[in-house]
């Protein structure tokens, strides 16, 4: 593995140039270009934001899952279940990833984006859908409003989908840290999917089995300062398309907002925590018992921000539908329970998102079977 990472070289000549937001900031613009300006109805209004929320997303200590005491394990499982049903978002601590590794991951992300734009261009993504590399425009639709964000997008799991040409060699420890961090996030993701399954009275491997095998990819997002933050978005409102997302961000950050009861609530990043959210495929597989939640990112006039989401997704060929055993259990517990979502192939769902872009919960809601 290390030899593969070390030997990967970037074919600079074949790379296009990424149209980076950072280049606009370096020019010292005072007004953002039209392609970044959201229509008035899509702009973030302070009247819809709960600036001082009484509630925060649950903070869950996973340490109890390792306990020899069944009662302690059950308490943590119950917290996870309630968080999935009531919020769709929660933060976890004592998740098993060393804080030093989390710090290293954040540091290499900062070091990469501290490189000159020309240096980063060596890793520019090729045009097309779902392509790895450095860029700012992740969707294909030509007239789509752009987000105020640069990123590097990398496929991580299984190892066969990795393309080490896009793994930066500067900073020098980037590849080593990324590999270690990804192996740890995979363990956490599998553990959470197992807990979700148990909470639904299913065998522990049910959700993982339903997606064939976990696929993982990562975005390292860089949100530069924006001269007119009220006109644009770091990331427009959307739900994540896969199974679950593990987000690493700087302590105290509250740029990410989630939608709850028609209010947008800023999530304040806790020390040493990962922010977890339920994504679209879990909503379908659980027949809506656990729902994916809309979230968005605001940008700041003065401060840049880095965030690092790792997405746990289904295999492209996975056929996603409400789990039959769960429907049967729900039917036995209440009245007759029918599938509320149509059957889909995960790859088709993924393509729709990257072709047309973030659009609230439009995609998963289109699969709801009309009664």
From TrEMBL:
It comes from the Eukaryota. SUPFAM superfamilies: Clavaminate synthase-like. This is Fe2OG dioxygenase domain-containing protein. Belongs to the iron/ascorbate-dependent oxidoreductase family. InterPro entries: DIOX_N, IPNS-like_FE2OG_OXY, IPNS-like_sf, Oxoglu/Fe-dep_dioxygenase_dom, Plant_2OG-oxidoreductases. It comes from Araucaria cunninghamii (Hoop pine). The keyword Iron applies. Keywords: Iron, Metal-binding, Oxidoreductase. GO terms for molecular function: metal ion binding; oxidoreductase activity. Residues 214-314 form the Fe2OG dioxygenase domain. Transmembrane segments: none annotated. PANTHER family: OXOGLUTARATE/IRON-DEPENDENT DIOXYGENASE (PTHR47991).
